């Protein structure tokens, strides 16, 4: 599972790294000299770090749960990349994470996996559901087509590609990670296998004398896989300590609220969206797993997401909408389609500040800002329970929609001409002549 957008990270091994001794009391459990010798040293002397190594080391120890978060120069180098050179990427991950993290946490808990694995998707796809690598891996979790189809039963064809279905792909990723951990008995090796495949990890283990430790087989792994685990550790650090490096979300992206239906058989999606009152672009945004503008006759229980704001209208007219969408229209202008209702734009949360007044409590301010107390404390890194007069708090509020919704109109009965009927009519006309 490769990701072409972040080749710069793997290229670090052949251009940037120059290893030396790290100050402080840190003593690695493995031989860094063997690892360091793999990098082409283009700088003289040890690397110049902007962040105190001891600080990163202490924080990683506090974060460590089931997956070891080892500190070394590789990890430190990636922390600095995400903190400085690629700070905009880190900020974008903070702005997008709330779309997917609740889903990730749900399935990680279901399969008994470490919660910190949710950060792996940031390295895989940058939380871009439509990401496709130069190798052909796709989706949030970057599955190859043959792996998705053969190992996890996903549908991948010219109509549906379930690698882009966030829920379907997340569950498959959890199943795969659980399987890899059972195979190798080590989370670092499982992560490496997720990146390069279990056969390549086993081959590296044989080439490096049978070692069953990631750092022990580091020299025998592909270059990009060597970067993979340090990137994961660095991203785990940044997602938890971004405030301390002056990185914070400015415009949080919030998913469009939606409801779902299951459909089988042929369905014209253009007709569905027109009759329901939203655009085909919105449907594509809500359903990245649907590739074509129609579902074929052999479709079975395909999940289709509809904007929540249009779902009540759809339900009221469900039978007529679906019946119309199941007919292959050849004369769109003959259908009385009401397209005057505007689609709902993607909501974006804007950053605002609030100055605490005398006597105000956390709960009172949270209610005033439309937040929970825990969310207010998390966003503002408040550890205690008291607020100070004049204290500035940060909160996020949805920006006003750029387009106004028109009043909902009653559903008009649509007229359509089927292909079979039109052919019969044409024959009758020719006979009359």
How would you explain this protein's 3D organization?
- With 433 residues, this protein is mainly alpha-helical.
- The protein has 3 domains: 4-249, Lysozyme (Orthogonal Bundle), CATH 1.10.530.10; 256-337, no CATH class; 348-398, Membrane-bound Lytic Murein Transglycosylase D, Chain A (Roll), CATH 3.10.350.10.
- It contains 19 helices and 7 strands.
- The strands form 3 sheets. The chain has a 3-stranded antiparallel sheet with strand order 1-6-7. A two-stranded antiparallel ribbon has the order 2-5. The chain has a two-stranded antiparallel sheet with strand order 3-4.
- The termini are far apart.
Number of domains: 3
Number of helices: 19
**Overall 3D form:** flat
Q: Cα distance, first to last residue?
A: 65 Å
Briefly note the CATH topology name of the largest domain.
Answer: Lysozyme
Radius of gyration over C-alpha positions, nearest whole angstrom: 27 Å
Low-confidence residue ranges: 2-45, 329-348, 401-420
Relative helix content: 40-55%
Would you report the number of β strands? 7
Highest CATH level, the class of the largest domain = Mainly Alpha
Mean pLDDT: 80
